[in-house]
Specification:
The longest helix is centred in the first third of the chain and has 22 residues. Helix 2 runs antiparallel to helix 3. Strands 1-7-6-5 form a four-stranded mixed β-sheet. The chain has a three-stranded mixed β-sheet with strand order 2-3-4. The chain is globular. The chain is of the alpha/beta class and about 220 residues long. The chain is about 35% helix and about 25% strand.
Length: about 220
Protein backbone atom coordinates (compact mmCIF):
# COMPACT_ATOMS: atom_id res chain seq x y z
CA UNK A 1 0.00 0.00 0.00
CA UNK A 2 1.30 3.42 -0.90
CA UNK A 3 2.42 5.52 2.04
CA UNK A 4 0.32 8.71 2.43
CA UNK A 5 2.18 12.00 1.82
CA UNK A 6 4.08 13.39 4.80
CA UNK A 7 3.80 10.13 6.72
CA UNK A 8 6.46 7.74 7.92
CA UNK A 9 6.55 4.27 6.42
CA UNK A 10 6.22 1.37 8.89
CA UNK A 11 9.33 -0.27 10.32
CA UNK A 12 10.81 -2.99 8.14
CA UNK A 13 9.81 -6.41 9.37
CA UNK A 14 12.98 -8.31 8.65
CA UNK A 15 16.56 -7.91 9.79
CA UNK A 16 19.62 -7.68 7.54
CA UNK A 17 22.13 -10.50 7.26
CA UNK A 18 24.18 -9.42 10.25
CA UNK A 19 21.15 -9.09 12.50
CA UNK A 20 20.82 -5.32 12.35
CA UNK A 21 17.30 -3.93 12.44
CA UNK A 22 16.77 -0.68 10.64
CA UNK A 23 13.71 1.40 10.06
CA UNK A 24 12.51 2.32 6.62
CA UNK A 25 11.32 5.89 6.66
CA UNK A 26 9.48 7.64 3.90
CA UNK A 27 9.11 11.34 4.50
CA UNK A 28 8.13 14.01 2.06
CA UNK A 29 10.01 17.28 2.16
CA UNK A 30 8.34 19.55 -0.34
CA UNK A 31 10.32 22.43 -1.70
CA UNK A 32 8.99 25.31 -3.75
CA UNK A 33 9.95 25.49 -7.41
CA UNK A 34 13.32 27.12 -7.74
CA UNK A 35 14.11 29.80 -10.30
CA UNK A 36 16.41 28.73 -13.11
CA UNK A 37 20.01 29.44 -12.33
CA UNK A 38 22.69 30.62 -14.71
CA UNK A 39 25.61 28.45 -15.71
CA UNK A 40 26.20 24.77 -15.99
CA UNK A 41 26.75 22.13 -13.35
CA UNK A 42 29.32 19.34 -13.65
CA UNK A 43 28.14 15.84 -14.41
CA UNK A 44 29.42 12.98 -12.28
CA UNK A 45 31.44 10.41 -14.18
CA UNK A 46 29.75 7.01 -14.32
CA UNK A 47 32.64 4.73 -15.19
CA UNK A 48 33.31 3.43 -11.67
CA UNK A 49 33.27 -0.35 -11.48
CA UNK A 50 30.72 -2.25 -9.45
CA UNK A 51 33.46 -3.66 -7.24
CA UNK A 52 34.61 -0.22 -6.11
CA UNK A 53 31.01 0.83 -5.53
CA UNK A 54 30.36 -2.20 -3.30
CA UNK A 55 33.41 -1.46 -1.16
CA UNK A 56 32.11 2.01 -0.27
CA UNK A 57 28.46 0.92 0.08
CA UNK A 58 26.87 0.31 3.50
CA UNK A 59 24.87 -2.59 2.16
CA UNK A 60 26.46 -6.01 2.34
CA UNK A 61 28.05 -7.13 -0.91
CA UNK A 62 25.41 -9.85 -1.16
CA UNK A 63 22.58 -7.37 -0.75
CA UNK A 64 24.16 -5.03 -3.32
CA UNK A 65 24.11 -7.80 -5.92
CA UNK A 66 20.64 -8.89 -4.84
CA UNK A 67 19.30 -5.35 -5.35
CA UNK A 68 20.57 -5.44 -8.93
CA UNK A 69 18.83 -8.76 -9.48
CA UNK A 70 15.56 -7.50 -7.99
CA UNK A 71 15.57 -4.49 -10.30
CA UNK A 72 16.05 -6.69 -13.37
CA UNK A 73 13.35 -9.15 -12.33
CA UNK A 74 10.75 -6.52 -11.43
CA UNK A 75 11.42 -4.46 -14.56
CA UNK A 76 11.16 -7.57 -16.72
CA UNK A 77 7.86 -8.66 -15.22
CA UNK A 78 6.33 -5.19 -15.54
CA UNK A 79 7.48 -4.97 -19.15
CA UNK A 80 6.11 -8.43 -19.90
CA UNK A 81 2.74 -7.61 -18.31
CA UNK A 82 2.16 -4.07 -19.59
CA UNK A 83 4.59 -3.46 -22.44
CA UNK A 84 4.88 0.20 -23.42
CA UNK A 85 1.58 1.20 -21.81
CA UNK A 86 3.45 2.15 -18.63
CA UNK A 87 6.65 3.97 -17.78
CA UNK A 88 7.87 2.54 -14.49
CA UNK A 89 11.36 2.92 -13.07
CA UNK A 90 12.43 0.32 -10.51
CA UNK A 91 15.01 1.07 -7.82
CA UNK A 92 15.88 -1.51 -5.17
CA UNK A 93 17.91 -0.45 -2.14
CA UNK A 94 18.55 -2.92 0.66
CA UNK A 95 15.72 -4.99 -0.84
CA UNK A 96 13.15 -2.19 -0.51
CA UNK A 97 11.75 -1.35 -3.94
CA UNK A 98 10.89 2.18 -5.04
CA UNK A 99 8.59 2.51 -8.06
CA UNK A 100 8.40 5.82 -9.92
CA UNK A 101 6.87 6.83 -13.24
CA UNK A 102 3.44 6.73 -14.84
CA UNK A 103 0.59 4.25 -15.28
CA UNK A 104 -2.52 4.66 -17.48
CA UNK A 105 -5.09 4.02 -14.74
CA UNK A 106 -5.60 3.09 -11.10
CA UNK A 107 -6.12 -0.59 -11.92
CA UNK A 108 -2.66 -0.89 -13.45
CA UNK A 109 -1.24 1.17 -10.59
CA UNK A 110 -2.58 -1.34 -8.09
CA UNK A 111 -1.20 -4.32 -9.99
CA UNK A 112 2.34 -3.00 -9.85
CA UNK A 113 2.71 -3.62 -6.12
CA UNK A 114 1.58 -7.21 -6.55
CA UNK A 115 4.20 -7.77 -9.22
CA UNK A 116 6.94 -6.46 -6.93
CA UNK A 117 5.70 -8.47 -3.95
CA UNK A 118 5.94 -11.62 -6.06
CA UNK A 119 9.69 -11.25 -6.52
CA UNK A 120 11.81 -13.23 -4.06
CA UNK A 121 13.69 -11.39 -1.29
CA UNK A 122 11.79 -8.10 -1.62
CA UNK A 123 11.25 -6.57 1.85
CA UNK A 124 8.88 -3.73 0.99
CA UNK A 125 7.41 -1.57 -1.77
CA UNK A 126 7.23 2.22 -1.98
CA UNK A 127 4.88 2.96 -4.89
CA UNK A 128 5.26 6.53 -6.14
CA UNK A 129 3.93 5.85 -9.64
CA UNK A 130 1.22 8.34 -10.70
CA UNK A 131 -1.72 7.92 -13.04
CA UNK A 132 -1.10 9.82 -16.26
CA UNK A 133 0.49 9.69 -19.70
CA UNK A 134 4.03 8.40 -20.05
CA UNK A 135 6.68 11.08 -19.67
CA UNK A 136 8.36 12.42 -22.81
CA UNK A 137 11.97 11.75 -23.77
CA UNK A 138 12.70 15.43 -23.11
CA UNK A 139 11.32 15.15 -19.57
CA UNK A 140 13.36 12.01 -18.91
CA UNK A 141 16.53 13.69 -20.17
CA UNK A 142 15.85 16.62 -17.85
CA UNK A 143 15.38 14.24 -14.91
CA UNK A 144 18.70 12.56 -15.73
CA UNK A 145 20.41 15.95 -15.75
CA UNK A 146 18.91 16.82 -12.35
CA UNK A 147 20.14 13.50 -10.93
CA UNK A 148 23.67 14.12 -12.21
CA UNK A 149 23.63 17.66 -10.85
CA UNK A 150 22.47 16.57 -7.39
CA UNK A 151 25.15 13.85 -7.25
CA UNK A 152 27.83 16.35 -8.26
CA UNK A 153 26.68 18.77 -5.59
CA UNK A 154 26.82 15.98 -2.98
CA UNK A 155 30.50 15.56 -3.82
CA UNK A 156 31.19 19.30 -3.79
CA UNK A 157 29.39 19.80 -0.46
CA UNK A 158 31.65 17.29 1.33
CA UNK A 159 29.12 16.98 4.17
CA UNK A 160 28.73 13.19 3.82
CA UNK A 161 29.87 10.44 1.49
CA UNK A 162 28.00 10.70 -1.79
CA UNK A 163 28.27 6.90 -2.10
CA UNK A 164 25.82 6.51 0.78
CA UNK A 165 22.88 8.25 -0.91
CA UNK A 166 21.22 7.05 -4.11
CA UNK A 167 19.40 9.66 -6.20
CA UNK A 168 16.37 9.00 -8.42
CA UNK A 169 14.51 11.79 -10.23
CA UNK A 170 11.04 11.64 -11.76
CA UNK A 171 9.17 14.69 -13.09
CA UNK A 172 11.57 17.05 -11.23
CA UNK A 173 10.92 15.22 -7.95
CA UNK A 174 14.09 13.87 -6.34
CA UNK A 175 13.94 10.65 -4.32
CA UNK A 176 16.79 9.96 -1.91
CA UNK A 177 17.59 6.42 -0.74
CA UNK A 178 20.30 5.10 1.54
CA UNK A 179 21.36 3.71 4.89
CA UNK A 180 22.23 6.94 6.67
CA UNK A 181 22.28 8.85 9.94
CA UNK A 182 19.76 11.61 10.61
CA UNK A 183 22.47 14.21 10.09
CA UNK A 184 23.45 12.73 6.72
CA UNK A 185 19.80 12.57 5.66
CA UNK A 186 19.20 16.23 6.50
CA UNK A 187 22.35 17.31 4.69
CA UNK A 188 21.47 15.31 1.57
CA UNK A 189 17.91 16.64 1.51
CA UNK A 190 19.15 20.23 1.87
CA UNK A 191 21.63 19.88 -1.00
CA UNK A 192 19.01 18.25 -3.22
CA UNK A 193 16.31 20.79 -2.33
CA UNK A 194 18.53 23.70 -3.34
CA UNK A 195 19.64 22.16 -6.64
CA UNK A 196 18.60 23.58 -9.98
CA UNK A 197 15.23 22.39 -11.29
CA UNK A 198 14.21 20.36 -8.24
CA UNK A 199 10.50 20.71 -7.45
CA UNK A 200 10.30 18.45 -4.40
CA UNK A 201 12.47 16.07 -2.37
CA UNK A 202 11.22 12.71 -1.09
CA UNK A 203 13.26 10.87 1.55
CA UNK A 204 13.29 7.08 1.35
CA UNK A 205 15.94 6.36 3.95
CA UNK A 206 16.81 3.68 6.47
CA UNK A 207 18.18 5.40 9.56
CA UNK A 208 21.09 4.13 11.63
CA UNK A 209 22.96 5.57 14.60
CA UNK A 210 26.28 7.41 14.35
CA UNK A 211 28.00 4.45 16.01
CA UNK A 212 26.49 2.02 13.53
CA UNK A 213 27.58 4.27 10.64
CA UNK A 214 31.16 4.30 11.91
CA UNK A 215 31.11 0.53 12.27
CA UNK A 216 29.84 0.01 8.72
CA UNK A 217 32.30 2.51 7.27
CA UNK A 218 35.28 0.95 9.09
CA UNK A 219 34.61 -2.80 9.15
CA UNK A 220 37.17 -5.05 10.82
CA UNK A 221 38.32 -8.17 9.09
CA UNK A 222 36.93 -9.24 5.76
CA UNK A 223 34.28 -7.40 3.83
CA UNK A 224 30.78 -8.46 4.96
Amino acid sequence: MKTPPQALAPSAASATADGRRRTLVLGLAAASTLPLLQGCFPVVATGVGAGAAMVSDRRTSGTYVEDESIEWKVSGRIRQRFGNTVNVNVTSYNRNVLLTGQAPNATVLGELEGIVAGVEHVRGVINEVVVGPNSTLTARANDALITSNVKARFVDAKRFSAHHVKVVTEANVVFLLGIVTRTEADAAAEVARTSQGVRKVVRVFEFISDDEARRLDNPTGARR
